[in-house]
Structures are given as structure tokens and as C-alpha cells.
Design goal:
442 residues, mainly alpha, Growth Hormone, Chain: A, 22 helices, 0% strand, globular
Length: 442
């Protein structure tokens, strides 16, 4: 693998790191926010979900801009929004201003979930694509871990009521770094071909590698997939021809959130406090969960192009079912403590090794070049709609019965296991231009 390719992927995937940080950082602030703004469970859920409402809009709206100004141009906009959101949350003057700036950060998260993996998929040769797109997921979980660590360190300083402001504000630093480093990466070669900028595309492919071994042949294949007769960018997206990848993207994105993953990430400390842990201990348990997420994401990245997407999903689905069932049992029987920690460690390991590693790789692969941006946007839109619903309702449901919430998630994961076995196709090692043929798209 070329070092310049890896370097470019790492920079593009910084959008994923900020995605993860922004997603998880609120988990350490929930108690402070309830006190600061006198929030009930419904309002707390809305505060958390406000970012997710932003992700829904960001995910569904970013497809056309990324086709018009390019993946790189959109990444610059994302970096700016992350920075403004972090600073705005740190200096929020009332609840509504906090909700607004969290929503603004959500726009960035939703856009990142579309553009970062799409850009990496389009610049990576097929033999490396799974591992390189999974760098986005690695950065997401690294961002989650860094948020948990940051929250734990800030929480240990005992700085009082300003604690939550510092937790939000530190995100401004990596946001600024992301913006600066984007100047070092090129435009996507597939986007350049779509815009008829063939010489620029040829230069990028020569530098970063091809699937065919020939730059000219690669460009011809991309042009064929973008041909005016079959694949105009103005072509309707919701049509019979694309029904199969659309249904696959919606299914994997919905199942991702029906596992309860975002409820657990957003409310990690809250869940441990429900089980009897103190504030500092709960923040520390969150770090353990984040570290487990990172370790098993690395494990999945190392094997995703060898074992394929489907086998990882099978392993993850079984792990989900066992760990969520045990977590529900823990709440029903009030066992809590170390048993609950073990249950959630198994859960997060199952997620990291399965859905977490596969979802963005899979969605970035199954759509043809001409509609990939819209397909990625649809998958992310579905993901974030479900995330908003799960995260908004979790405090209310968990207050009534934590066991009910986790039992429901376990049942949903039985559905995912059946989908993986009987419906999900394998996409490992297949060039992007050929996957559409495998799915029957002509």
C-alpha cells in the first residue's frame, strides 16, 4: 500500500474522529445539564437528540453538495461547522442556544458519516478498500474513546459547574487541525471523472493506485459506469433499478441503531449511575467501554478484507443477542456492578467487530458511482433517524425499566441475524464498478 494513500485516508477519516468525539462527549455532561437547565427526562432526551436531528438533515442534504463542489470541498465545510459547534456549546448562554449548537454539530456528524467513507471508497483500490474505509470507523471509535478520556480527566479536576463547558469546548482543537490538514489531500478521482477533469483524475490515480493496474483502463471503467445513457447524475434515485441497494442500505442502517448502540454511547455514564456507580467511577467505566470499542475495531479492520463483511456481521449479531439479553437480565434482577460492566464490554466488542466495522464500508460499496452520494446519504439518514428515536426515548424508557429497553434491543438483533443469513450479499474484493453488476443493476 502506498504511504501517500494511507496518509490521505487518515486525513479524510479525521471527520470520523470528530464524528465519534461529538457523539460521545455529551455522555459526561448529562447530570450537569439536568442541574444547569432544570431538565426533566423528556428534555434531556431532546437535548441529546438535538444533535441527532442535525445529523438527519446533514446526512440527507449533503449528497448533492458533494456531487457539485466535490467531496474535499464539503469536508472543509464540515470542519468549520465542528469548530463553531464546539465553541458555541462551550459558551452557550441558555438551554436553547446549547440545543442550537449541538444541532449544528449534528449537521457535521451527519455529513461526515456520508462524505468521509465515500471519499475513501472512491480513492482506494478494491484490494485495500475495506480496511481503508474502516479507518473511518477506527477514527469514530478513537474519537469516542478520546471523548470519554477527556470527560474523565475534566471530571477529575473538580472544576465545578463549568465542567460541562470544558467537555464540549475541547473539540475545537481537533476541528481546527482537521481544517488545516485538508489542504494536503486531492479531490476524489471518480468525482473528477464525473466533472470531465480527466487529466486531474489521471494524476490522482497514478499517485494513489488503481484496480486494473492501468490508469487509462480505470478511467474508461469509471466513465462507463457514469455513461450518459445509463447513469446520469440527474437520474431518479428512488426507482426500481436501485431498489436492491436501497433496501440493503436502509436495513443495515436501521439494524445498527436498533441494537441500542447510540443509546449506550450517549448515556454510558448515565447507565452506570443507574446501576449504582458513583460519578467518577461511571466516567471511568465509560473509558473502559471506549477502549474495548477501539481494540475490537482494530481487530475487525485487520480481517474485514480477508473474512468479508458477512462473517463479521454474523459474529457481531450473535454477540449482540447474548450481551443484550444478559444486560436486560442484569437490570431485571438488580445484579448490576461488575456483571453489568462485563455485559456492556461484550456488547461493545460485538458492535465494534460486526456492525461498527461493516456499516459504512458496506453502504459505500453497494451503490453505483452516479448515485453513490445519494445512496450514502440515504443510509446515513436512516441511521440517524433511528439514532434520534432511540436516544430521545431511552431516558424515559430506562427510568421506567432498564430491562425493557435492552430486551427490546436483543429482540431486534434476532431480526438482524436472520437478515444477515438470508439477505445480505458479500462485497469483499469486488471493484466498485462491478458490484452494481453483482446486484443486477444495468
Amino acid at each position: 500500500m502506498k504511504l501517500n494513500l494511507l496518509g490521505t485516508v487518515i486525513i479524510a477519516a479525521l471527520g470520523g474522529l470528530l464524528f465519534g468525539f461529538d457523539t460521545a462527549v455529551i455522555s459526561g455532561t448529562t447530570d450537569w445539564l439536568k442541574k444547569e437547565f432544570s431538565l426533566n427526562d423528556f428534555q434531556l432526551g431532546f437535548t441529546v437528540a438535538s444533535a441527532l436531528i442535525g445529523t438527519i438533515i446533514g446526512a440527507i442534504a449533503i449528497g448533492k453538495p458533494s456531487d457539485k463542489i466535490g467531496r474535499k470541498g464539503v469536508l472543509f465545510i464540515i470542519a468549520v461547522l465542528y469548530f463553531v459547534s464546539a465553541v458555541g456549546c462551550a459558551f452557550a448562554w441558555d438551554w436553547w442556544s446549547l440545543v442550537f449548537f449541538r444541532w449544528l454539530g449534528g449537521l457535521s456528524v451527519g455529513a461526515s458519516s456520508v462524505v468521509s467513507p465515500m471519499y475513501i471508497a472512491e480513492i482506494s483500490p478494491a484490494r485495500y478498500r475495506g480496511r481503508l474505509v474502516a479507518v473511518t470507523q477506527f477514527n469514530i471509535v478513537l474519537g469516542i474513546l478520546l471523548a470519554y478520556l477527556s470527560n474523565y480527566v475534566i471530571g477529575s479536576l473538580n472544576i465545578g459547574s463549568a465542567e460541562w463547558r470544558w467537555m464540549f469546548g475541547v473539540e475545537a482543537l481537533p476541528s481546527a487541525l482537521f481544517f488545516v490538514m485538508l489542504f494536503l489531500i486531492p479531490q476524489s478521482p471518480r468525482w473528477l471523472v464525473a466533472k470531465k477533469r480527466i487529466d486531474e483524475a489521471r494524476s490522482v490515480l497514478e499517485k494513489y493506485g488503481t484496480d486494473t493496474g492501468s490508469v487509462d483502463e480505470e478511467i474508461k471503467e469509471i466513465e462507463l459506469s457514469l455513461s450518459a445513457e445509463h447513469n446520469l447524475l440527474e437520474e431518479p434515485f428512488f426507482c426500481k433499478k436501485y431498489a436492491k441497494p436501497i433496501l440493503l442500505a436502509v436495513a443495515i442502517a436501521a439494524f445498527n441503531q436498533l441494537s441500542g448502540i447510540n443509546a449506550i454511547i450517549y448515556y454510558t455514564a448515565y447507565i452506570f449511575k443507574m446501576a449504582g456507580f458513583g460519578t467518577t467511577d461511571a466516567l471511568f467505566q465509560s473509558v473502559i467501554i471506549g477502549l474495548t470499542n477501539l481494540v475490537f475495531t482494530i481487530a475487525a479492520m485487520s480481517v474485514i478484507d480477508h473474512f468479508g463483511r458477512k462473517k463479521l456481521m454474523l459474529v457481531g449479531s450473535i454477540g449482540y443477542i447474548l450481551s443484550l439479553t444478559a444486560t436486560a437480565y442484569s437490570f431485571y434482577t438488580n445484579t448490576g456492578g461488575i456483571f453489568l460492566l462485563i455485559c456492556l464490554i461484550v456488547f461493545i466488542a460485538s458492535h465494534a467487530f460486526g456492525q461498527g466495522a461493516v456499516i459504512w464500508v458496506f453502504i459505500s460499496e453497494i451503490f453505483p458511482n452516479s448515485v453513490r452520494a445519494r445512496g450514502q446519504a440515504l443510509g446515513s439518514f436512516t441511521h440517524w433517524v433511528m439514532a434520534a428515536a432511540i436516544s430521545w426515548t431511552f431516558p424515559m424508557i430506562a427510568t421506567a425499566s432498564g430491562g425493557h429497553a435492552f430486551a427490546f434491543y436483543a429482540l431486534c438483533m434476532v431480526g438482524q441475524l436472520l437478515w444477515v443469513i438470508f439477505v445480505m450479499p458479500e462485497t469483499k474484493g469486488i471493484p466498485l464498478e462491478k458490484i452494481q453488476k453483482e446486484l443486477g443493476i444495468q
